[in-house]
Structure formats: structure tokens, C-alpha cells
Amino acid sequence: MESRVREVMTRNPEAFQPDDSIAFILNAMHVGGYRHVPVTDEQGRPLAVASVKDLVGFILDNFPEDVLNLPPTPIRKTEQREGA
To answer: How many structural domains comprise the chain?
Structure first.
């Protein structure tokens, strides 16, 4: 099967600048349903492609205590009270 990039790409994707905040980019990715977004310079020339994996990895590498020390959220709730 042969396909051209133009047949599967997102036309005119929202591009981000290197100085944009990670929170801003992650929010845009969530709202738009994107897993990858282009990063361009001020002239619109491509610099990189940022992925969700890249951004989450950056957060975990640079703020491990903030992430790892979050209180746990129970996955399931019990129907009955615990205890004797």
C-alpha cells in the first residue's frame, strides 16, 4: 500500500515555540487529541516534534518528588464498610 503524507497528515497543525510552557502544550495536545506536535522557530521553520512521551518524561525527570509523592487514589471503592 502506498500513501502520500498529505493524505494522512493534519493540515495546518498548530505549531509551538521553544519558549511555550509544557502545561500549555500538554493542554493543547489533550484538547486537540494530538500525540505529537511540531515545534518551530520564530520564522516557522521546524525544529522538532514533541510527543506526549517526551513531555511526560521531562516532567518525571525534573520533578520526580512532586509526581511520586502524590497521594494515591483508590482504583475501586468498596460497597461495605471495612473493619471488624
So the answer is: 1
Is residue 83, in this structure, part of any structural domain at all?
no
Q: pTM for this structure?
A: 0.68
Question: Look-up: residue for cell 497528515?
Answer: 9
User: How far is CA 79 from each of CA 28, 72, 73, 74, 76, rounded to the nearest angstrom?
Assistant: 38, 19, 16, 13, 9
Q: 50 CB contacts (<8 Å, ≥6 apart)? A: 16, 25, 36, 37, 38, 39
pLDDT for 3-61, tens place per residue?
998 898 888 889 999 999 999 999 999 999 999 999 999 999 999 999 999 999 999 99
